[in-house]
Amino acid sequence: MEYSFIKWDLFDTYVNVLYYRLKDMQFDTIVGVGRGGLIPATILSYKLGINDLQNIAINTRHSDNIEIYQIPQNLKGKVLVVDDINDTGVTFETIKKLLDVDITFASLIKRYNTKFDNIYAHLATNDDWYVFPWDK
Fold first, then answer.
1. Torsion angle of the four alpha carbons 123, 124, 125, 126, in this order, in degrees rounded to the nearest 10
2. End-to-end Cα distance, the chain
3. In the CATH hierarchy, which top-level class contains the domain 3-135?
4. Which of 53, 71, 96, 106 could form a disulfide with 45 if both were Cys (CB 3.0 to 4.6 A apart)?
């Protein structure tokens, strides 16, 4: 397996790309997918001026055994769900089924062969394992 290391300056670039793709849309709440989506979700909440920031804690690494630890409460209006990577689409698909609200999905990186479409900053055309600055 090959590794791609994302440094803070590239992370900043990805967040800014997402900001420009999202800035004309209106959201009432941002939900960060714990753990990898929490940092970009927090930064986007500041950039977009959205004070309602919540967390969804979910583990879909083993799609035959999805673990849900925390679900956001009292969601209304338009919701932006943010994660670091949309790899297979299982995480976003599971969240879509769990939350009964108007959701837009965004990720820093979207894998080329994912089955779930979302707004993204970078399209990964390889199968590398992405290591983000906070993964260390």
1. 180
2. 18
3. alpha beta
4. 53
pLDDT, one tens digit per residue, over 109-133 is 999 999 999 999 999 999 999 999 9
* Per-residue pLDDT reduced to its tens digit, 30-46: 999 999 999 999 999 99
Amino acid at 123: L
- Pick the residue with more confidence: 42 or 76? 42
Q: What are phi and psi of 73, to 5 degrees?
A: -115, 155
Identify the H or E element spanning 84.
strand 78-86
Please calculate the CA angle 18-48-27 and round it to the nearest 5 degrees: 95
> pTM of the entire structure?
0.94
Q: How far is CA 112 from CA 36, 86, 107, 116, in A?
A: 19, 9, 13, 10
Q: What is the pLDDT of residue 69?
A: 84
Beta-bridge partner residues of 5: 131
